[in-house]
Specification:
Chain lengths: 139, 139
DNA sequence: GCGGTATATTCCCTATAAGGAATATAGATC
DNA sequence: GATCTATATTCCTTATAGGGAATATACCGC
C-alpha cells in the first residue's frame, strides 16, 4: 500500500518542515539547512528518505542538489500534501520557516534562490567578504 | 508538534484499515478482528496505540470495548481523516473491509452492530435471532 | 593534476515499532 | 465463590528509525 509510505514520510517533524518549504518552490540543500538550522547530515538523510519514497524529486545544478516536490504526484500524494499545507497553518514552526524562506529569497531577488552562492566567486570589484558575498548565479 | 503523532498513527496498514472501518461507526474489538482477519493481540495493540495518541476513543459495554473516532477531533485530525477516507477509495483493501463491515452489520440489523453478541443471553421471550443458531465466536 | 565546496554515505549507538506467545484483567453468569 | 468471554498487557525478538562523527563522492575552478 503506497499510502503507508507517504505517511511514513510525514511522521517526522524535520521532514514536514522540509516539505513545507518545498511548497514554495525548489531549494538546494544548503538553503534548507540554513532555514531549518539543522546539521547537514540530518537534512541530507531526511531528503534521501523522502526521495527514496517519491515524496521529493531532485536535480543537480553544478555542486548543488536542488530538491522539489514531485512534478506529477499521485492522487494520494497531492491530497496529503494539500492537507499538510492546510494543517501547517496551525503550527507556528511552519510559518516561521516560511518567513525565513521569504527573507532568504529576498536576498537573492532577481536570481532564483536555488543555491547558496556562498563563495561563488565575488567579482573582484566588490567590498570585502565580511558581509555575505552578494552574488550572481553561478552558471 | 501534534501533527507528527497523527502521521505516526497513519503509517501502519492495519491502523489505516481500522480507522477506515470506524468511519462507519463504533465497533467492538472482536468485530474489527473478524473483519481484518488479524489476531487479537495485533488488533488490540494497534487500538491501544491509536488510543494513546487520541485517534480513537473507547467506551466499555459489558465485556466489550467499543471503539470509535473521537467525538471532537482537532482540526488537524479531522482534515487528515477526511483525506484518508478520500485516498482510501484508491486502495482496494479498504473497500473490501467496508463491504465486509456492511455484511456484518446486516447480520445484526435491528440491534446495533456494536458487539459480537455471541453468547448474549437471548431473553427467552424474544424472537430468536432467526437462523443464526446461538453463534459461537466467529473466527 | 590540486584544492575547495556541496552533498551523500558509512559506521555506530540508542530508541521505538511490530509481531507473537503467554498471561493478566474486567465483567458476566452461575 | 468458580468459570467463561472479551480484551489488555507483559515478555521477547527482530526490524527500522533517528542522530552524530567521520569519511566519501561529485563537481567546480585553476
Amino acid at each position: 500500500m503506497k499510502l503507508t509510505q507517504i505517511y511514513q514520510c510525514l511522521c517526522d517533524r524535520t521532514r514536514l518542515r522540509i516539505l513545507n518549504l518545498l511548497h514554495g518552490g525548489e531549494l538546494c540543500v544548503c538553503h534548507i539547512q540554513e532555514i531549518l538550522g539543522e546539521p547537514q547530515v540530518k537534512v541530507s538523510k531526511h531528503l534521501s528518505y523522502l526521495r527514496a519514497r517519491g515524496l521529493v524529486a531532485v536535480r543537480r545544478k553544478a555542486n548543488w542538489m536542488v530538491y522539489r516536490l514531485p512534478d506529477r504526484p499521485s492522487g494520494e500524494l497531492s491530497a496529503n500534501l494539500a492537507c499538510l499545507q492546510d494543517c501547517a497553518r496551525e503550527t507556528p514552526v511552519f510559518g516561521r520557516d516560511s518567513a525565513r524562506l521569504g527573507r532568504l529569497k529576498a536576498k537573492f531577488e532577481g536570481s532564483s534562490p536555488i543555491c547558496c552562492m556562498t563563495k561563488v566567486r565575488v567579482p573582484q570589484s566588490s567590498r570585502g567578504r565580511a558581509a555575505r558575498p552578494r552574488a550572481t548565479s553561478p552558471r
